[in-house]
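[Automated response] Your request has been received and processed.

Submitted sequence:
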Amino acid sequence: MSVHLPEASADAGPRIAVRCRLCGDALERSFVDLGMSPLCESFLAPGQLDAMEPYFPLHVLVCGRCFLVQLKEYVSPEHIFREYAYFSSYSTSWVAHAKRYCEAVTKRLGLGPDSLAVELASNDGYLLQHFAGLGVPVLGVEPAANVAKVAIDKGIPTRVACSAIASWACFLVPTNITVPPLATVSLMKA
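Generated structure:
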């Protein structure tokens, strides 16, 4: 199978060398350019409605080496996730879907107490609570501390980490969880 990825558009302005967050290769391939957008989950107070709102490029790139799809970093993750407003558990249909997914994956892969379900960008534990309920040990990694606290309050072991490096570092830091061989990783949130 071959995959053709178009070059980033020539009219996108001067090229700034950007490296893949996973493998470090140069990012030169455009996945989709969605124009300009304000930051996600940033809401304006009534007094800010007539002020200029910052917009940032949503030009999504894909690494030609490892195929990780990503954006350039214009705003630090710490700023974006300081007080995040989206909680996955607000959607009852999404939580019901997550429960069915966990039941199906647990059965199909034969997961149990010797497995570990890890979710990056685990939000408020909407998914991992179902694996835990099925007897599968879990670990969440969530960039937003206010959202991670909800998961922790539900009894879902969760580490707060904003970057890919910090996320993977969670596995290197001693924890109260015995980390058996990895059973499944779910990357469900952007």
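Summary generated for your ticket: The two ends are 26 Å apart (CA to CA). Residues 92-109 form the longest helix (18 residues).
If you did not submit this request, please reply to this message.
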